[in-house]
From TrEMBL:
The gene is guaA. It comes from the Bacteria. It holds the Pfam family NAD_synthase. The active site is at residues 79, 169, 171. Gene3D superfamilies: 3.30.300.10, 3.40.50.880, HUPs (3.40.50.620). Pathway: Purine metabolism; GMP biosynthesis; GMP from XMP (L-Gln route): step 1/1. ATP binds at residues 222-228. One of its GO terms (molecular function) is ATP binding. This is GMP synthase [glutamine-hydrolyzing]. One of its GO terms (cellular component) is cytosol. Catalyzes the synthesis of GMP from XMP.
Length: 512
């Protein structure tokens, strides 16, 4: 396996991404958490130094662990990783005025290097630079293999020791041949690219067993992909030591609670408590129309309810969470202190501290598509794995204004027709997320010979990569017309349908 030492770059996780795409198993560890003993235990087959915001001359500048250059394994240094490598091995780094460079640059080759197979076939290669300091003298044993107008040492290597150091970021998309560089590096390091989800599953099961021992674990199951995969993986590892709690807040979609419970009980035979607390949640939400108050109310009750059920499982010492890698981008602070969490999981956040539980987070190292692959590996049906994301607060944030049982029922039915339409037209997998919302107003219509005064429904469908930005989905007019007709005909209480053409930004995906 490969070790990525994180010096605090915001794009370190992309390095992991590129390597996983090459079926190479890697782990990211912050520079201040790795030492000689760690290296001995981890026994990396290759090491990558990430970029980072620091300068090698700042006091307490992040440094690689002692002994890393004596491991006898290939090392690749990126940006700050290059500088720190040169600094440690006898080169020189300069900072200060005029040495910073951000953005596109073009690298010209200087001789041939196996690390650069596939590069320079059509001349200079575009790379992405983002650095304050730069290397002004390379370390003994190194040679230059690529230069750019502002970075004379854009690509350097000591081929006898297999130390490679580049000034740019090969992991970002703006370095189009970056993936080839990583591929060459892992080949040079002797990786075969045979890391699979099957192997990860076995590894994780062993890890969970050794972490938990014979203790009990509780897991909040939402029915979403992440918590489902977490639950099933833990069930495989621990069997009856695991109890899952499915908190039904009464804000789920049509038939959802029944489907989730059935799937887990019948297919996996896991201990599952169906906590039907819809009266509690809907009661507390009565008369509430402020979006933040809604969210906070649901969050607070969720914790209370979960605690109540967890207390029924005496001796539980662990809480399992479906935290994913992008949720825990661990960045390294300048002081070299502990890493900070930029984004925390918002659904069960706060629970472990409150309840004095230890965390089990088997998906912490995975990206979303890897979680799906693991889910498939664990036998979750494709229809389940490919489901669109669904927010923790559920339909509450798709019902702007006051939430009533009547409105929720109308919303559920309209949403079901809409999703059925999308599936029938074979569009479900093209769309990142689609749902109906019920608007806080009634409008006049005419049906048959009569006047109607009913709710308006708004349909939303977006394409996105990560939910951070999104574009509305360009349905055909025929599709929209047909869907509106079906909803109005099939769902009592709706007489008007809108399609939401707002992108994100400026809109958000959910209405609240
Ligand atoms: P927004 O509305 O912020 O949504 O553009 C981006 C993505 O996040 C989902 N979302 C949530 N997911 N708990 C969740 O688990 C929440 O409180 C929450 N709020 C929004 C939303 O469905 C979309 O996929």
């Amino acid at each position: 396996r490969l070790l990525i030492i994180d010096f605090g770059s915001q794009v370190t996780q992309l390095i992991a991404r590129r390597l996983r795409e090459l079926s190479v198993y890697c782990e990211i560890h912050p520079f201040n958490k790795v030492d000689e003993a760690f290296l001995a235990r981890f026994a990396p087959k290759a090491v990558i130094f990430s970029g980072g915001p620091a300068s090698v001359y700042t006091e307490g500048a992040p440094m690689p662990p002692k002994g890393v250059f004596d491991l006898g394994v290939p090392i690749l240094g990126i940006c700050y990783g290059q500088q720190v490598m040169m600094h440690c091995l006898g080169g020189h780094v300069e900072g200060g005025h005029g040495t910073a460079e951000f953005g596109r640059a073009y690298v010209t080759p200087v001789g041939k290097l196996p690390l650069l197979d596939g590069w320079f076939e059509q001349g200079d290669e575009q790379v992405w630079m983002s650095h304050g300091d730069h290397v002004s003298r390379i370390a003994p044993g190194f040679q230059v293999y690529g230069t750019s107008p502002n970075a004379p040492f854009a690509i350097t290597a000591d081929t006898s020791r297999h130390f490679y150091a580049v000034q740019f970021h090969p992991e970002v998309h703006h370095t189009p041949k970056g993936a080839a560089l990583y591929e060459n590096f892992v080949k040079l390091a002797g990786f075969k690219g045979d890391w699979t989800m099957g192997a990860y599953r076995e590894e994780m099961i062993a890890k969970i067993k050794s972490q938990v021992g014979d203790k009990k674990v509780i897991c909040a199951l939402s029915g979403g992909v992440d918590s489902s995969v977490t639950g099933i993986l833990l069930h495989e590892a621990l069997g009856d030591q695991l109890t899952c709690v499915f908190v039904d807040h009464g804000l789920l979609r049509l038939g959802e609670a029944e489907q989730v419970v059935k799937m887990f009980r019948e297919n996996y035979n896991l201990n599952l408590i169906h906590a039907d607390e819809s009266d509690l949640f809907l009661g507390a939400l009565e008369g509430v129309s402020d979006p933040e108050v809604k969210r906070k109310t649901i969050g607070r009750l969720f914790i209370e309810v979960f605690q109540k059920y967890a207390n029924q499982i005496p001796g539980a010492e662990f809480l399992a969470q479906g935290t994913l890698y992008p949720d825990v981008i661990e960045s390294v602070s300048f002081s070299g202190g502990p890493s900070v969490t930029i984004k925390s999981h918002h659904n069960v956040g706060g629970l472990p501290e409150k309840m004095g539980l230890k965390l089990v987070e088997p998906l912490r190292e995975l990206f979303k598509d890897e979680v799906r692959a693991l889910g498939r590996e664990l036998g979750l049906p494709d229809s389940f794995i490919g489901r669109h994301p669904f927010p923790g607060p559920g339909l509450a944030i798709r019902c702007p204004g006051e939430i009533t049982r009547e409105k929720l029922e109308i919303l559920r039915r309209a949403d079901a027709v809409y999703i059925d339409q999308i599936r029938k037209h074979g569009l479900y997998d093209e769309i990142w997320q689609a749902f109906a919302a019920i608007l806080p107003m009634k409008t006049v219509g005419v049906m048959g010979d009569g006047r109607t005064y009913d709710y308006a429904v708004s349909l939303r469908a977006v394409t996105s990569v990560d939910g951070m930005t999104a574009d509305y989905y360009p349905f055909t007019h025929d599709f929209l017309g047909e869907t509106a007709t079906r909803i109005i005909n099939e769902v009592k209480g709706v007489n008007r349908v809108f399609y939401d053409c707002t992108s994100k930004p400026p809109g958000t995906i959910e209405l609240e």
